[in-house]
Write a structure and sequence with these properties.
mainly alpha; single chain; globular
Length: about 90
């Protein structure tokens, strides 16, 4: 008798990548002990825009992530690596 098995394939879609990057940015902000308002002021992104990005309603732009990284004293590359590690851990 044959047995039917199903394999779950994790898709690396743009939406999934964006969600992981959003989570990495949020985690980095929390780790830095800063509020959204403080980060918004430091990097010049309107608070409402930062909130929309962090809640996943709209995606971050590369320029925004780079500005946030700079405000947090880290790099764009570091945030991208954190996002990739989330994918690998899933």
């Amino acid at each position: 008798m044959f047995r039917l098995t199903t394999n779950l394939v994790r898709m690396n879609t743009p939406e999934a990548t964006s969600a992981r990057l959003t989570a990495a940015v949020g985690d980095a902000i929390k780790a830095a002990g800063l509020s959204q308002r403080a980060v918004a002021e430091r990097c010049g992104i309107p608070l409402v825009t930062l909130n929309r990005r962090l809640t996943g309603r709209t995606a971050f732009t590369v320029i925004e992530v780079a500005a946030i990284a700079d405000a947090l004293g880290t790099s764009l590359l570091d945030l991208a690596v954190r996002a990739e590690r989330m994918r690998d851990a899933a």
